[in-house]
Design brief:
By secondary structure, the protein is mostly beta strands. The protein is built from one helix and eight strands; from the N terminus they run H-E-E-E-E-E-E-E-E. The N and C termini lie far apart (43 Å).
Length: 107
């Protein structure tokens, strides 16, 4: 007896076990430093801007709260219990923008 198995769909369990590779920013280009992947209900997540001196941070989701903010850094908390993604944006006083996509993973 000979058995032949062929997998034709994505293996989500195996894909979940592979840690995502974080994008390495070009240090000569302004960027936001901080984790690109966080967990649900995480608190005190620190992000800072590199390459600009002043501006402010905004988030694209109501599921994220900015706890504290200075001219160069911010502290976030995740308010949701489900996986999602959001964009953290730094806007300079002159209107230039730097964005970082952050993925919120389930437990």
């Amino acid at each position: 007896m000979e058995v032949y198995l062929k997998e034709w769909y994505d293996n989500e369990a195996e894909d979940a076990s592979i840690p995502p590779q974080e994008e390495v920013p070009d240090l000569m280009v302004p960027h936001i430093e901080g984790p690109a992947s966080v967990n649900v209900y995480d608190e005190n997540l620190s992000y800072s801007i590199v390459g600009y001196k002043q501006g402010s941070f905004t988030v694209s989701s109501s599921k994220v709260k900015i706890n504290e903010m200075t001219d160069k850094s911010c502290n976030l908390s995740i308010l949701a219990g489900k996986a999602f993604s959001f964009i953290l944006t730094f806007v300079t006083d002159s209107g230039e923008k730097v964005e970082k996509i952050i993925t919120v993973k389930p437990f």
